[in-house]
Design goal:
Layout: H1 2-6, E1 14-17, E2 20-23, E3 30-32, E4 38-40, H2 42-60, E5 65-66, E6 71-73, E7 79-86, E8 95-99, H3 101-108, E9 112-119, E10 124-129, H4 130-136, E11 142-144, E12 149-157, E13 163-166, E14 172-174, E15 179-181
Parallel strand pairs: 7-9
Antiparallel strand pairs: 1-2, 3-4, 5-6, 6-7, 8-12, 9-10, 10-15, 11-12, 12-13, 13-14
């Protein structure tokens, strides 16, 4: 159920909130399941992910190839990306992601690896180097199922007006330096 919730909401027309360009979700892009969960049309999610991967290809100066829905690598398998997308959650954390053990294994095998957090309503993503994620895993909350344990990564607005990942004991990891602009086509 969590994975379904991580890649959920979208947005279309733009508006400006301070200096951050955002998009306003439209009801035509949202599918409401009988359970009440709101899902974004998969075509819109795929478009957002493609825009993010294009931006990461420019950042890494390499052509990224799709390995699976969320995993990408270059032809040499040295540059690796795990890309997760979240809608905005207005009542708690701004954005909510899962970081799966199999993604960590995939990223560990690369020379240059990033966990990329996409935000459906922003024209930016956060390309966090694997070494930064790995160094903070013990400070993240987890969920354990009968099959595995995975980590929760949330994004909140920091006191300085930027973005951060909350860690245990009231600490935060600023992620502002990991922003990459997304050119939506």
């Amino acid at each position: 159920m969590f994975t379904a919730a991580t890649d959920v909401e979208t947005a279309s027309p733009e508006f400006v909130d301070g200096d951050k360009t955002k998009a306003v979700p439209t009801s035509k892009d949202i599918i409401v399941a009988p359970s009440g969960w709101e899902f974004t049309d998969s075509v819109i999610l795929d478009k957002k992910r493609a825009d993010i991967i294009d931006a990461m290809s420019r950042k890494t100066k390499t052509k990224l190839i799709k390995k699976s829905r969320a995993l990408f690598w270059d032809a040499t398998h040295e540059v690796r990306i795990a890309c997760s997308i979240s809608k905005r959650y207005p009542k708690s954390y701004l954005y909510w992601y899962a970081f799966h053990p199999e993604w960590r294994e995939f990223l560990n095998e690369g020379r240059e690896s990033y966990f990329v957090l996409g935000c459906m309503d922003l024209k930016l993503a956060f390309a966090i180097p694997l070494k930064v994620i790995a160094a903070n895993l013990d400070a993240l909350n987890t969920t354990t199922t009968s099959k595995k344990t995975y980590w929760h990564i949330h994004i909140v607005e920091s006191a300085s007006g930027g973005y951060a990942v909350p860690l245990r004991h009231g600490k935060q990891l600023s992620i502002d330096t990991y922003q990459i602009p997304i050119e939506q086509m």
